[in-house]
Amino acid sequence: MQFMQPPDHPKKIDAGHMCVRLSLVWTFSIFLGLIIIQILLCFPAIRSNLDGVNIVQDALIYTDCKVIPAEFDKDDVRYYSAMSNIHLGCSDEALADLGRIASTGDGRARIYTWHLGFSLLALGRLDDAVRVWKQTPDIASELEAALLLRGNESEAAVQPQNAELSYKAYLLLNPTFDRYEFLGDFYIRVGQDSKAIEAFKQGSRIATKTDSAFLAGRIAELQEDWNVAAGYYRQAIEEGSSSIAPGVRLAKILIYRLGDQESGITICEQVIQIDAGDYACYEILGQVYIARGNSHKAIEWLTLGAVNVTGRYRNIYKSGFYNQIGWILLDLERPDEAEANFNKALSLSLYNADARRGLAFVSIAKGDFLSAAQALEQAIEVQGEQRGAVSYSWYDELGGIYEQVGDISSAKQFYEKALSLNPDDGFALDRIAALRNRSE
């Protein structure tokens, strides 16, 4: 994985040029350097740990700093010395080298700090990485953005340990209530509820009374104590929480866990009055009215969400709202309106695979099965790229489309793909058996 880089980088060393100049001045230094190289070559384990560090440079440069060419000063030596020490497991020496660079006030210190910290982090030395970064506080904003990016990329690549290191570093650089909650949410996503509870507990120790009540509610939710969680969220609201989060979570518990839909709907409406740009309560209200069979109210709330939602990810949320509206309209047998909403969803996010799937069902409703197959295949491709996995039921649907147009070979292929994902898929088993009987 490549880490986000700061604006500038340490100058590259022309090892050959340096060796020539050194050889003309200090023959003995070269001789001693070659001895060091030979020693390093005798230890493959050490040599393999010198990731990204040129052994020839190390051997010659560290022999005698007094003979370094003018364009390669002692701070450069200390930087590469620190890099070598990190990969050899000598973090204390690396930190000492960095401290000497930082004390000079040279602008390169921030660049060296950046790379040294990420090298330590890649080796799992979280505390050392944070110690390094804290020596140069002026890189904080760029660094935090890079850590979040690294964490997101690690999550997407299903590398939870790397993601955890990045998010922990992000927290330790500036421990705040919301960062503890952020780390806890990560643990929930990767199924580590006990670690999430511990993160919430640590956050509550530095939080205000209101935020502490909110985190207590999060802990109670993880313990599935719904009444206790609801009580804590009510407490946070009554104490004047500046966030809508307690209201949103309380509404979800009331509707989905305690069966009190009317109270949950009222709280959602109150939250929207406080912050009309947040997506969560529009989505909740849409789902409630869909479940109640009130398509008109569901479309009304989802449309308001698509119009009003704001924030960094607004287009993704808007796309989701239009997609849900499209499916409601399909159920109402209004394919032209459904198609318009699915296309709106895709205009906001080309990666909305379910909207592409919706267009496939619009084509089925219009009797155009070849277009339906094409749209569903595109949906499966996008879903695979974005999520890394596709539901077996989508392959069942694609098999059904090909069976409808008489392409039995393709139909069997997709039913078999569905079975490979879910061996208990009764629909695919029945259809394969029916096709086999038909061919006999």
SSE blueprint and pairings:
Blueprint: H1 15-25, H2 27-41, H3 44-49, H4 55-61, H5 74-87, H6 91-103, H7 108-122, H8 126-134, H9 140-156, H10 160-173, H11 177-189, H12 193-206, H13 209-222, H14 226-238, H15 245-257, H16 261-274, H17 280-291, H18 295-308, H19 314-331, H20 335-348, H21 353-365, H22 369-387, H23 392-404, H24 408-421, H25 426-439
Helix pairs in contact: 1-2, 2-4, 5-6, 5-7, 6-7, 7-8, 8-10, 9-10, 10-11, 11-12, 12-13, 13-14, 14-15, 15-16, 15-17, 16-17, 17-18, 18-19, 19-20, 19-21, 20-21, 21-22, 22-23, 23-24, 24-25
Key traits:
0% strand, disordered N terminus
What does this structure look like?
- The chain has 440 residues and is mainly α.
- It has a domain at 1-166.
- It contains 25 helices and no strands.
- It has helices at residues 15-25, 27-41, 44-49, 55-61, 74-87, 91-103, 108-122, 126-134, 140-156, 160-173, 177-189, 193-206, 209-222, 226-238, 245-257, 261-274, 280-291, 295-308, 314-331, 335-348, 353-365, 369-387, 392-404, 408-421, 426-439.
- It is globular, with a radius of gyration of 30 Å.
- It starts with 14 loop residues before the first helix and ends with a helix.
